[in-house]
Write a structure and sequence with these properties.
alpha+beta; nine-stranded antiparallel β-sheet; 22% strand
Amino acid sequence: MLGNEQQKQIDRVLEYIDEHLNESLPLEKLAKVSTYSVYHFQRTFKAMTGETPSGYIKRLRLENSAHYLIYEQQIPITQIAMMCGFSSLSYFTYSFNEYFKTSPKKWRERAYLERFPREYQDSKKSKVFSNNKKDGKQVNTYNDFRWLDLTKVKTIDFPVCATVNRQNIGPYTQGIPETWEDIYHWSKSRELLKQNSFIFGVPRNNPYITPPDKSRYDCRIAINEEDFAGAGEELIYEFKGGKHVVYEFDEPVMYAERSKLIECYSELYSYWLPKSGYRYLGNPIELVELEPIEGSLSIECKIKKICLAIEPK
């Protein structure tokens, strides 16, 4: 069984990979981040993630490119390949075909619909929808907002802050409440949890692109670094803050009912963003409420708002 120290070192590497995914990431550099030898780092990384470092990086790059191909229709495929860390279009195309069993071009045009429950307006198949409409056929497309109440869509600037983090690996409908429970009690016992603490989750992957067993979800609580003394060797993660588009639910959503969020995310990405003048910057965040259940050590955790980091196009 891997120890806590090894977990922290590999977590440090995973964070480094996320922040430098479009750069060269040789094994020697990652081993240095982990403080281990190359040999020990490779063994520990594979034991913890189930993937080799190079395999993990390649998968993330391919999944990021798949996301861009859907939601950034104006960016040429060659540019997306370079943005996602691939050295050539031919290698990107070969790797994409091998992983998704279709070409980047076909994925962008329609092939991704085999994984997604909805069809999106912001895609090259809009001509098909237009022709169907003329023929009088009923097509389930995004031609208006079905799930988002525009009066609840706001843009907010979040401050930079330090956070503590626990990560869950697995389906987003399972396991995450237990991870929140762990970090909640850890933070409360050290008096780091305040009444107005900024508490948020970070879904690291698109659940329709990344296999459920490899999906990562961060549970984060913002802390005052001055209060952090004596917290041991716990890693501190920086949240970069910045402008976000925010949607608040009428009733907070349980993780087991996460399917209720999917349509809202889909409309923010596929309809609101293309018309808003903004582009998304990276992983969404989810503002969370944690409520202790009276008479037990369990907590109830619900998602109050979903937020996308954005910047002007």
